[in-house]
Amino acid sequence: MPRRKGAPEVNAGSMADIAFLLLIFFLVTTTIETDAGLDRMLPPIEPPEQDVVIKQKNIFTVNINRNGQLLVEDNLMEIKDLREAATAFLENGADGSCTYCKGKKDPSSSDNPTKAIISLKNDRETKYSTYITVQNELVGAYNDLRNREAQRLYGSDFTTMESKYLDPETPSNVRDELKDKVKRIQDMFPQKLSEAETTTD
Amino acid sequence: MAKFTKKKEGDLPAVSTASLPDIVFMLLFFFMTVTTMKDSSLMVANTLPNASEIKKLEKKDRVIYIYVGTPTQEYQKVFGTEPKIQLNDKFANVDEVGSFILAERAKKPQELQNVLTTALKVDKEANMGLITDIKQQLREVNALKVNYTTYEGDAFNNLQ
Predict the structure, then answer these.
(1) pLDDT digits (tens, 9 = 90+) for A22-73
(2) Most CB within 10 Å of its CB: which of A100, A101, B31, B40?
(3) Is residue A66 part of a domain?
(4) How does it sit in the membrane (chain A) (predicted)?
(5) Which of A20, A133, A169 to mutate to test binding with chain B, by most B CBs within 10 Å of its CB?
(6) In total, how many domains does chain A have?
(7) CB atoms within 10 A of CB B60
């Protein structure tokens, strides 16, 4: 009659290895989820004290209709050309006061980057994804110009400098140093992106 | 009989499993630190658009979330298929956004109340009309800092 022993004991010596393997796997693959997106400031509800007169040539109008088509400065435009057009408008520098601009100095376009305003209007039926794409391109135009100047002055991209400045883990002495640089570049190309109320018709 | 009591020669010594709890605890702590608690379950479809010029939303305690999208399958019978706003755990109308923001702001510590960001998590199929109404509401309660939350990617993928 065969003798029945209890179940043979399983060797658990490699359990720790397996656990470590799992641990390392999760350590490598897990990203602590942080949301990211386009930061924007809405205009305050109270109108400014005195009326500001803005010359028409300093305003770059972008209209999006319900079919997702763009009307830029009264001309139809494809979204892929928007970034280039916005960049050209921002650094046009017609009055010559902007020394770092490389624009065409076209007298019918913006005077200098601090005066240039991009006005974005959309229809109520415009799809959100189209709107975000347009926003992305306009912010991209600012970022391209800021990156160029940051590369010239500090040899580093503005976007990396800014994210490093905003990162709470950056040591404070590095952040203080970055603050001035970031501020200077921001002042060179201030982001003036106006979103007026939507047209209903 | 001696034959049965004799220990076999090649028998392995039992492995000590005393360190197993340590390993399990380590894993536990790891997941505890990594896991972010989801405070509200999504009741709307929420496929965000892509964008490339994005900034990270640091510090979760300074963010108020607003979700917009078409209600998911189980809610479509009651709420229809038009995009709706979800605030915390319930659907809301546009005119409730302002009071929601004020209520959320009041819950935050004093020193954070002026630095709050409103994260708009909007489905890419939504129309701008609703977003414009929300933006108007946000302006009325002076919550001017908004973040259009997106996925990182090529913005032109949105147009397809």
Answers:
(1) 777 776 766 566 678 888 888 877 776 666 777 788 888 888 888 888 888 8
(2) A101
(3) yes
(4) Single-pass membrane protein; Single-pass type II membrane protein
(5) A133
(6) 1
(7) 13
Confidence band (pLDDT; 50, 70, 90) for A200?
A: very low
Residues 143-162 of A with CB under 8 A from B: 143, 159, 162
A2 part of contact set with chain B, CB < 8 Å:
no
Of A11, A43, A143, the CB nearest to B53: A143
- Which residues pair with residue A199 across a beta bridge? A123
Query: With contacts defined as CB-CB under 8 Å, which chain B residues touch A131?
Result: 128, 131
| Residue A120 in contact with partner chain B when CB distance is under 8 A | no
Range of the domain at A63: 56-195
A11, part of any domain: no
Hey, what are B27's tokens?
């894993």
Could you tell me if residue A13 is inside a domain? no
Measuring CA to CA, how many Å separate B89 from each of A41, A111, A183, B13? 26, 49, 40, 57
Residue A37 lies in a domain: no
pLDDT digits (tens, 9 = 90+) for A76-100: 888 888 888 888 888 887 777 777 8
Cβ of A128 within 8 Å of Cβ of B49? The answer is yes
Tell me: the pLDDT tens digits for B16-26? Answer: 777 777 877 78
**Number of domains comprising chain B:** 1
Structure-block tokens of residue B115: 């630095």
